[in-house]
Amino acid sequence: MILKQIDSYSYGNRLRSLPATAKCGFAAALLLLAYLAGPAEQAAIVAWLFSWTVIRAGIGARFYAAALGSVLGFYLLSLPALLVEVMPEGAAAISGAAIRVDIGHWQLVVTDEGGWLAVRLMFRILACSSCFLFVILTTPMADLFHVLRKLRVPQLVLEIMQIMYRFLFLLLQTAVELYMAQRARGGYRGAKRTIADTATLAARLFSRTMSRYEGWTRGLRARGFEDELRLAPAEPGTVPARLRIEAWMGIAILTLTALTLPGGWLS
């Protein structure tokens, strides 16, 4: 269902008419800044892209927060590996540990350096994810295929991507249909029954999806398919002067800030 909601937002947002190349170029420039700049600039990128994606494009704030929250959840799962170090007894005093827990002859240690690294990584992840979400939620996949073609991505790779994208929806629809049919027959009641029904769904899902794939293949051949899946023509569009000026000024200010602030590239 999340996939369908993303697809719906990409076609129904208020920035849909802007050229896909302009949106991708804007996001790519901010992605480079988000990767190289410090936490202050990264926080500014998160806030700025929130205004573009939620306020300007009209993407639901709850959905956007949930998307960023899921990314943050994966970060939190990896946080213990970033923060906690295992050291022999007595080594923590040498390393300057901020937090220390003794377990036998070993110590679990959290250093100031590790904490600062975790904070910087969090801001970088949020900023980079905001760039990707801006493109995903405001640009339909069909337009992204045109951008990839302009970037000289091989035709074979593009066709594989188109087929995979189509079958994501086909797989989702088939899974929902099978699940609803099982529920109507009294399935998924109790832990043991749920495990058995899930295994049955997985087996039937594969066979049903392959059957639909064969039907889709026969349909392509019947329509005279000849070695290339053609894209629908891209809709022409222009970027309003106000948005263009804001984008260039924002990127320039962020770059200048990253160059001059303490801890920046030139400091």
Word description of this protein:
This protein has 267 residues and is mainly alpha-helical. The chain has a domain of 83 residues. 72% of the residues lie in helices and 7% in strands. It has ten helices and three strands. The chain has a three-stranded antiparallel sheet. Helix 2 packs parallel to helix 10, helix 7 runs antiparallel to helix 8 and helix 8 packs across helix 9. The longest helix is centred in the last third of the chain and has 32 residues. It starts with a helix and ends in a 7-residue tail after the last helix. The relative contact order is 0.13.
Task: Please describe the structure with a list of short key phrases separated by commas or semicolons.
267 residues; flat; single chain; mainly alpha
Tell me the helix content. over 70%
Count every helix, treating DSSP H or I runs of 4 or more residues as helices: 10
What is the CA-CA span between the terminal residues? 47 Å
Q: Helix and strand string, N-terminal first? A: HHHHEHEEHHHHH
Count of DSSP E strands? Answer: 3
Gyration radius, to the nearest Å?
24 Å
Which strand-content bin applies to the residues? 5-15%
The biggest beta sheet is recorded as: 3 strands, antiparallel
Shape, per Cα inertia axes: flat
Major sheet strand order: 1-3-2
| Uncertain spans | none
How would the blueprint of this fold be written?
Layout: H1 2-12, H2 20-36, H3 39-56, H4 61-83, E1 84-88, H5 91-95, E2 97-103, E3 106-111, H6 112-138, H7 141-150, H8 155-184, H9 191-222, H10 241-260
Antiparallel strand pairs: 1-3, 2-3
